[in-house]
Design goal:
The complex is a heterodimer. Chain A is an all-alpha fold. Chain A has 11 helices and 1 strand. Chain A has helices spanning 3-34, 44-54, 65-84, 100-120, 124-155, 160-169, 176-192, 211-214, 220-245, 256-283, 292-313; one strand at 57-60. By secondary structure, chain B is mainly α. The chains are: A mainly alpha, B mainly alpha.
Chain lengths: 315, 672
Amino acid sequence: MNPLGVISQLLAIIVALALAPLLTGWVNQWRAWLQNKSAPSLLQQYRMLHKLFNKDSVVAVHASPFFRIAPYIIFGCMTLACAIIPMLSTDLPLASAADAIALVGLFALARVFISLAAMDVGTAFGNLGARREMLIGFLAEPALLMVLFTAALISNSTSLTSIVDTLGGRELAIFPSLAFAGVAFTMVSLAENARVPVDNPATHLELTMIHEALILEYSGRHLALVEWAASLKLFAYSCIGLALFIPWGMADAQAPVALLLALPVLILKLAVGGVLLAVLETVSAKMRIFRVPEFLCTAFLLAVIAMLVHILLGA
Amino acid sequence: MNALFDCTHLNGVLAVAVAWLVIGVAGVCAMRRVELVPRILLPAGSVFGVALFAIAAHALFAPAEAAVLPIGLPGLPFHFRLDGLSAFFLMVIGGAAAGVSAFAAGYLRKVEGEMPPGLVGLQYHVFLASMVLVVLADDAYAFMVMWETMALSSFFLVIVNHRIEENRRAGYLYLLIAHIGAIGILLCFGVLQANTGDYTFANMRVQEHTPFWASMAFLLALFGFGAKAGLLPLHVWLPEAHPAAPSPVSALMSGVMLKTAIYGFLRITFDLLHVHLWWWGLLLLGIGLITGLFGIVFAAVQVDMKRLLAYSSIENIGLIFAAIGLSVLFSSFGMTPMAALALTAALYHVVIHAFFKSLLFVSTGAVLHATSQRSLGKLGGLIRYMPWVAWICLIGVLTSAGLPPLSGFVSEWLLLQGFLFTPELPSSFLNMLIPISAALVALIAALAGYTMVKFFGIIFLGQPREEQLAHVHDAGRWERAGMIWLACGCVLLGLLPAQFIQFIDPVTRQLTGAGLGSTVAANGWLLIPVAAERASYGPIIFLAGVAASFALAFLLVRKLYHGRLRRSAPWDCGFPWLTPRMQDTAEGFGQPIRQIFESLFRVERQLPTPFDAQPRYRVSIGDHFWYWLYLPVAHVTERMARLIGLMQQGRISVYLLYSFVTLIALLVWVTR
């Protein structure tokens, strides 16, 4: 374990924790602009977290300890997820502990915990949210795994750092398998991060919400942690997307200067990605919950096609 | 060959089996003393389980031992042999039995069964001992005797509460399918001995078979052991028999007995048969994955907690068979390291399923005890009244859902790694099929998460759906001890995969000629099956990462802000009249699955009309196989029996006429 690796690892975690709310704020701002609304400040997410941490946590009388532990576990999962995804550099000591499959498992762990926590208080909305979240989860998870498998087959490795090294080392060209995988990945990310057309992060319309229904009973510091974890999740997904499909500009092991250069590149890529996400959300309409399986099955099939294309054409 | 009283591994294992038999008989001798079985005999049985686990773990690394015991028929002694494969499965039996027996010691103390505890104890211990001897058997005769003993003793355990008609029906179905399967196994041994008349495994091992006869043996073994394991379409007995049996018995049947079928199948496919044809692997993979998907989809819509677990067992068996299929596929193309990787995944899943499924079944036992409810729709909120059971069960649930860093994830991870090697197979047809199989495995694993959230959330979380649930008691000391032992298995197998694979290594070396042991051992705490740049997984670092950010977040929030907490009524969007009836029922939680996979089920709905005074909504979910396969077969059998019954006149003169006609016919045929 080299000192530069430790530094880049710590830097990755700090950057993720610090920038994740900013990314959410950036997407919200752009969405408001695109929808002709007056946008909240870019720092609104930080203010909200600060306010929530200051408030008392109000917990239902009969909530079990599970309800209070879950936000910390979800937060821990998302932090680890951001730590193992190559965003600035591919020299990450923690990445050897968890490969692409374990990353999917990590997201699944967080999902199971948040769903169980939502069921803990025993409200109608909590149960509804849990059921829908698990529904989306079981459809999105295989699709995400297939996207990662396509990348893994190209690079002969499931380790995220090796995948990014291989993909980043190839010449600039459009690979059909990755094109399919990219579309599938975008669809999965929309679903997993509770975005339009699957869910609407801005809504509290009772019958259509998924993510908001899950966290309805949380308040104060618990809510702050869950919200922070949600922005970390968006950040993590964006970084996986960037790492798989636009891996250029990332530092490799032996270059401290590249590490410094990688940060502005990452911010630039995320800024563009955030705008695209806002555009995508603005131009699409939310779909009925039972259209979601079709949407995600399409993603799943596209990912499988990506894999077959790779096997058949070797590209 | 060993002398009978030498201090060998085999004698140790046989001693454990005999000890279990003695314990069983002791319970019958003191039938009137109700306290004896739970207080003394079951804890003793549990200790012997630990002993078996230890002996078998030690025997794994020792050379094979054999013995001939002059019991059985004259001139036809029992052959026993303890090699790597049997030692591995003995570990599974011992490990799970130790936990389940300890749980049963607490459980049987309170349950008022119709069968006296002495008899239950006898059947229970005969069941345990017969499983040990099945795994040890080294000739077809001993194997079949033990196999049947196992089936019969478990049959009696299934019908412990035999006054309930449903249970008798379940027992009958179980016995029937067990015997149809046994016929397949018997015929398979018949093929394997290749007209030599010598039914020892040693003889079968040296026989060379043509591809046709090898395939026949393989298919018969698949049929016979598939019936015991619950492969499609012979799975129907599991969801009937598991709910009928007492919970510790369900735990043993699901966690351990199904594994003896896996053992038998591995013994025949990998040890007694040498050739592997590629289509065997494809067949296994296909049946395994279909079974897995079918099992988990049905599990997700169940409303009875033990039926849910029974279907989940079908799913797990499916995954194990899929992994074995992948291994056969690799080995048929001579890719032994990959065959070893897939087989390691299968064996890993065998062990963890034994632990987590036993844990989940005994948890349902504890819940059943406290609430006398098996229906999910009448439970809820038990984490507040039964914290021990709930938190330990959570470990089993997370393992079953295949989540890191627990052990369920390790086998899933290994299996998926195995699939990623399939592009190296020299057949483009297979190359294309296999990614779709990997996609199915991912889907099955994700659905398992859904099902387990339903299982845990509805039983233990939320508000109690019935009044009396607020007065339930937690598990007793023995029950907790048993559950903790099983939960420790789930956690340790998850955190120390690199260490545990050393125990699988001798088995895969014996069966496929390669093992992961040396690769894995070179990398210490990280699990690296092939090469570091290819894939690695470090559960301890993983856990440490999550735990560290958990702890830092916890401390920093308290340090920088505060830890104040206020209790209040639930918010629920400001709705003030919240009742427990507003929570999701088990049907409600499974509804999306029912809708998405509608064509897999046979759904019967009874909707209320607007004029009903007491509107009732009923929905029942049936299995297509009943209507497509079992009922037609039963119908045909019944009709044939009725036709044959016409010959039975009950008058001696008619029977004499039959004899006479037969005699004439034979004379004509002989003199022709």
